[in-house]
Amino acid sequence: MLEIKNLTVSVKDKQILNGLNLSLPAGQVHAIMGPNGSGKSTLSAVLMGHPDYEVTAGEILYKGKALSGLSTDERARQGIFLCFQYPVALPGVTIPNFLRTVLKNTTGQELSVRDFRARLKTAMVALQMDDRYLARYVNDGFSGGEKKRLEILQMMLMEPALSILDETDSGLDIDALRIIAQGIEKMRSTERSMLVITHYKRILNYIKPDVVHVLTGGRIAHTGGPELADRLESDGYDWVTSRAG
Fold it and tell me: Is this model's pTM higher than 0.90 or not?
């Protein structure tokens, strides 16, 4: 699904990623953990084609094809989705209008009102979102948990092949984390892959990764199974960063 080879990235003449390598097969969930400033959010932005980040070396292959040259909206239409760490508000744009526009622009087809409402209702029930959300503007006045639920609602409707979840667990209380993680788990399939970027193990108590990577100094310094998250939780990152240095 995703192959990253020797990826080197700079922003404002500062190099952030330093020859990063990562392989994410179809059907798998990989977690990326690491300390602040290690390059985790930079990686998510580069995968989605943020124009401020310059790829100076290496390549990103999605389903065997290079992503270089594709804009953010083109990547979304190819089946790539980014769940933002800090979702922005869109005052004046209602949630149903936003979601219908997203689906139309990513799939090239417009669902009937009946079919759209049926799909929306199913996803909202899974995320324990009541009908009052439908009268609200996108993220306008939303709590952190409400914003993250809307992000996962969008993901469930779009059904992307590759989902990048950038610190989706940040700012969530225990109940919101559990509900959102359950929604993410419902998206698991042999035809989809997920990259879960997080500081902490707590979301991985609900979303069981196949592989855990430690990102530090702009590269993958260590890779292991789910048990690696347990060691990071107990021992921190120092043992990885000291060895990588």
Answer: no
